[in-house]
Design goal:
Strand content of chain B: 15-25%
Largest sheet of chain A: 7 strands, mixed
Helix content of chain B: 25-40%
Oligomer: heterodimer
Helix content of chain A: 25-40%
Number of strands of chain A: 28
Number of helices of chain A: 23
Distance between the termini of chain A: 83 Å
Radius of gyration of chain B: 16 Å
Strand content of chain A: 15-25%
Strand order of the largest sheet of chain B: 2-1-5-3-4
Structural class of chain B: alpha+beta
Shape of chain A: globular
Chain lengths: 813, 163
């Protein structure tokens, strides 16, 4: 017997073109809205136009009589069945939460909330009937401002008696991870440096490209739900727990899913309503949202006020950080809403050795769409705060912002390092990433150019922004989630099935929606089992195929799900070893497994994995007591988070006359440990950067004083397009994680976390000569211009100022 | 109802449609051409881009009746004779897609960009794609794909691949 299968050397590390591309580039896709079933009915939602009101009456008679309409459901109709949508993360024992009905029953609490559902034979007929539903509202006071809501006054939910949902505190002195921050602040006040700032994390909208869509088929023994979700497994569990439908009677499928970014990490009212409608009518039902509905009623992200106090010595050594957050929950608590700012609690100290740390977060209700996970979830907010503060500290003590960081960061030889927030960072090399970034960027040359242009009074000023970030990835060790009162564990599951023909099916609990798991998992398994890349099929996103999983978010797929795949593959090899030894009439201990082949040491005898698979299938001659199967399962619970890091450098030209900020160059060197597929990694970094840059410069969800979302379409919510973005220079250093089998760390959120402060630091840096030390995000031309004016330095470069005045007078401008 | 006759991806169709039916809904719901997707309601995202008589249009911004007597090509009709269109191939080679939802419209628009200017520079490509939003890729690899497709076609060496 010989091993004959041809395969390249190592798959891991190859820039493999993705196997999922073929269907996507030819339009042979299975997005949820593409699904049509026999007799399928279509849903349209009647949504509240007001932000806070009592529903006094709903008249559905005209809508019910409209052509094609089969039924109209109101909150009262389903009040008994719909339960309350789940929140899986009560951060404190006394956390306050209002009931969260899928269809509002007595009150509406944000504009866009569903008040009735039309079910019709076609989608057009369902939408036609929306305006025929007559809802009477009795207005209640609208609570919009986060700080005002936290202070008291009008209530979002009068029944709760407060706008505060919960307050969560971490104190290094109490936890024994550091000293008392108040001591550090007192010392800094007396001869040191105290940087006190208030930053605003504006409200953002995930704005995945595929609008959310759900199809429910109630016919057959099980109820099947297809949904544009990141979390089919969590969705099934939560639907079962909320409705009482046995979990085993529910099948949830996430087919092709068009992006998520945390926005599809949810159990939505619309999913619940589609389920209720299908159950009630006994027919397949579909709901697909419009973009306006998506922007208005799919959960939002960020929205915090950060009050920050950084204490340091005059030489730039940080002695303490105090963080006081207000986090806007919006009107309800979604799946992980309360926990999002808490994820940030562990990241404010970032890559630095702070001796003292205090974090307190107050979660507050307002009459706006509820917030929840959005790419980075808690960590971009923390990274923004500390990286902005480090630049402010550098300015305050008069040393280069890169130097001030280096003075405070954890040195390469100090790993593993336990931080003041209590996490153990296993590995990192901030020196190497920074040195590489600095060189690629031409840091010293750009600083020299900046000085020249400042001295010359150039109306277009150059700003240089830095972000040396880290993040915690691989959510999450289950014991840590338990200690934070999260409702579930953080493990992941994988199965590997060896088919008789030697082909391999990999079943993963991760649920990709653009990340390229099919390709990356195939690469991992091809290497591990020594089979060709194309012989591996990756199956996912269907609870009947992948029965167990925790899904995809928090840069967890590779570091948790990928490792589960490795563990399952190793079990396959061990099972195969016993059978191979029998086939070769050798002792299992004398076999070595390389390149997909079991060989008897010191001989040329061997047998390939595919041959073992066939022999196992035939089962004619297996060792006594050995079952005829190589199939293996593994459920992997990580011991620790992983900690990718990187140095991002951004150069921005800021036109001081128009306020426009234009990114001139952007260099990032990320260290995400071992790379499975550099092509996919680079793509993740590019996309992440753009989302972070968009927060810095473009995007903001804006409500008017009545609580109506003003940015309710892509006309007003500014998702950047190709000409808005620069070409990025991306590179890597590679410091493998020491806490998992592959040395991987995760990359999905890195770009988004790192880039926001890099860009805003650059904008502020450009404006330092004007006395500007902050520009609120997004740094629109208007805000930048106002920041310049606000510091009373309207005309520092006299010549340009004269030109612009002349231009206006001449009617040219 | 209005009667329309339209050729889509090489096949002739005659249908009665409501005058208010958008072209994209006709394609998806009547013809089952679900490869073309809907991403917004304001003609901003470009996910629904198809070709009408060889030029790109956003099919959510046209009524089906306006396509009467015309020829529509969707992403599903692009690969001919079992070979990918060079732009499809370029998107694959350059990792110009992640979730793939914007991809049909992006590919159709990218072809149109090269139709106008067979040899664009990077800025011209970016400008040409302004009406098509992508949330995953940060555009860098899309721009790279379009430039590589342009290079391939001007050198006459663009080779599709068996689908």
């Amino acid at each position: 017997m010989t091993a004959t299968q041809e395969r390249p050397g190592a798959e891991v590390g190859n820039a493999r073109r993705r196997k999922e591309d073929q269907r996507l580039i030819t339009g042979r896709t299975r997005f949820t809205d593409n699904i049509t079933l026999p007799g399928m009915l279509h849903l349209a939602m009647v949504r509240s136009p007001v932000a806070h009101a009592r529903i006094t009456s709903i008249d559905t008679s005209a809508a019910s009589a409209s052509p094609g309409v089969i039924a109209v459901l109101t909150g009262r109709d389903v009040a008994e069945r719909q339960g309350s949508l789940p929140c899986a993360w009560p951060i404190t024992e006394d956390q306050k939460a209002p009931p969260h009905p899928a269809i509002a029953v007595d009150t509406v609490n944000f504009a866009g909330e569903v008040v009735a559902c039309i079910i019709a034979r076609s989608s057009a007929e369902a939408r036609d009937a929306i305006e025929l539903v007559d809802v009477e509202y009795d207005d209640l006071p609208v609570v919009l401002d986060l700080e005002a809501a936290a202070a008291g006054g009008d209530l979002t939910h009068p029944d709760l008696g407060t706008n505060v949902s919960a307050t969560w505190v971490f104190d290094s002195a109490e936890m024994g991870t550091g000293g008392n921050v108040e001591d550090a602040i007192r010392e800094a006040r007396d001869g040191g440096v105290l940087v006190e700032r208030k930053y605003r994390q504006q409200r953002l909208i995930p704005a995945f490209m595929e609008p959310r869509s759900t199809v429910v088929d109630p016919t057959g023994e099980q109820i099947t739900m297809w949904s544009a979700t990141q979390v089919p497994h969590i969705l099934r569990l939560m639907l079962a727990m909320t409705t009482g439908i046995p979990e085993s009677k529910l099948r949830v499928i996430a087919p092709d899913v068009g992006g998520g970014f945390g926005g599809k990490l949810q159990v939505t009212p619309e999913e619940m309503i589609t389920l209720l409608a299908a159950q009630q009518l006994g027919k397949p039902c579909k709901y697909t949202e419009t973009r306006s509905e998506s922007l208005m009623a799919a959960h939002h992200g960020r929205d915090q006020v950060q009050k920050l106090t950084l204490a340091a010595r005059r030489d730039g050594t940080v002695t303490g950080l105090k963080v006081e957050l207000l986090a806007d929950m919006g009107a309800y608590l979604g799946l992980v809403t309360p926990g999002v700012p808490i994820l940030g609690a562990f990241m404010f100290n970032a890559i630095y050795k702070f001796p003292t740390y205090h974090f307190a977060c107050t979660n507050v209700f307002t009459n706006k769409a509820w917030t929840d996970a959005y790419r980075g979830a808690g960590r971009p907010e923390a990274t923004y705060a500390i990286e902005r503060l480090m630049d402010e500290l550098a300015h305050e003590v008069g040393i280069d912002p890169l130097e001030v960081r280096e003075k405070n960061w954890i040195k390469h030889e100090e790993f593993p390092f336990t931080t003041v927030a209590g996490l153990e960072y296993d590995s990192g090399n901030y020196e190497a990433a920074t040195a590489k970034a600095r060189e690629l960027f031409g840091y010293d040359e750009l600083r020299a150019e900046q000085k020249r242009r400042r001295d010359a009074g150039d109306p277009v000023q150059l700003g240089i922004g830095i972000s040396t970030f880290t993040e915690m990835c691989g959510l999450a060790p289950s014991r840590v989630l338990g200690s934070l009162a999260y409702g579930a564990g953080g493990w992941e599951h994988a199965s590997i099935r060896m088919l008789a023909t030697g082909k391999v099916e990999v079943v993963t609990g991760s649920s990709p929606h653009g990340q390229g798991h099919e390709t990356a998992w195939s690469q991992i398994v091809a290497d591990r089992l020594g089979v060709p890349f194309d012989d591996v099929e990756v199956l996912h996103g269907d609870t009947q195929i992948s029965h167990k999983g925790m899904d995809t978010y928090g840069s967890r797929s590779l570091t948790v799900g990928g490792i589960a795949v490795v563990k399952a593959a190793d079990k396959v090899i061990e099972k195969a070893r016993t059978i191979a030894a029998h086939m070769l009439e050798a002792s299992p201990d004398d076999l070595e497994f390389t390149g997909g082949r079991f060989g008897v040491r010191g001989t040329d005898k061997g047998v390939a994995m595919g041959e073992v698979a066939l022999a196992t299938f035939a089962a004619h001659d297996l060792p006594d007591g050995v079952e005829p199967s190589l199939d293996s399962d593994a459920t992997f619970d990580p011991e620790n988070f992983s900690f990718p890091h990187g140095t991002h450098l951004c150069a921005v030209d800021v036109d001081t006359e128009t306020g426009e900020s234009k990114i001139r160059s952007y260099v990032c060197v990320d260290d995400i440990g071992t790379v499975v597929n550099p092509l996919i990694v680079e793509g993740q970094v590019h996309g992440g950067l753009v989302q972070g840059i968009a927060q810095a410069l473009f995007e903001e969800a804006v409500y008017d004083e009545a609580g109506t979302l003003v940015t309710g379409s892509f006309v007003d919510y500014l998702v950047p397009s190709a000409p808005d973005m620069p070409k990025f220079v991306t590179d890597r250093t590679e410091t493998p994680s020491t806490t998992n089998d592959l040395g991987v760390k995760g990359v999905g959120e890195a770009g988004t976390i790192a880039s926001t402060p890099a860009v805003v630091n650059a904008v502020v840096d450009a404006l330092r000569p004007y006395g500007v030390d902050d520009v609120e995000m997004p740094c629109t031309p208007h805000r930048v211009w106002q920041a310049i004016q606000g510091h009373g330095q309207t005309t520092p470069p006299a010549p340009s100022s004269a030109q612009s005045v002349a231009g206006q007078e001449g009617g040219v401008a | 109802m209005a009667k329309i006759t339209v050729k889509v991806d090489g096949t002739n169709y005659s249908d009665d449609v409501e005058p208010r039916t958008l072209l994209v809904h006709y394609l998806r719901e009547r013809l089952g051409k679900v490869g073309t997707v809907v991403g917004c309601d304001t003609t901003n995202c470009g996910a629904c881009t198809v070709h009408l008589d060889g030029r790109s249009v956003k099919s959510c911004t046209m009524f089906a009746v306006q396509a009467d007597g015309h020829e529509v090509t969707t992403i599903e009709g692009l690969a001919g004779d079992g070979r990918l269109h060079p732009m499809q191939q370029a998107f694959h080679e350059n990792h110009a897609l992640q979730c793939g939802f914007c991809t049909p419209g992006m590919i159709m628009q990218a072809i149109d960009v090269l139709h106008d200017n067979p040899n664009p520079d990077e800025e011209q490509v970016r400008d040409g794609l302004e009406g098509n939003l992508c949330r995953c890729t940060g555009y860098q690899n899309i721009v790279k794909a379009v430039l590589s497709a342009a290079q391939g076609s001007t050198q006459g060496s663009a080779q599709g691949r068996t689908v």
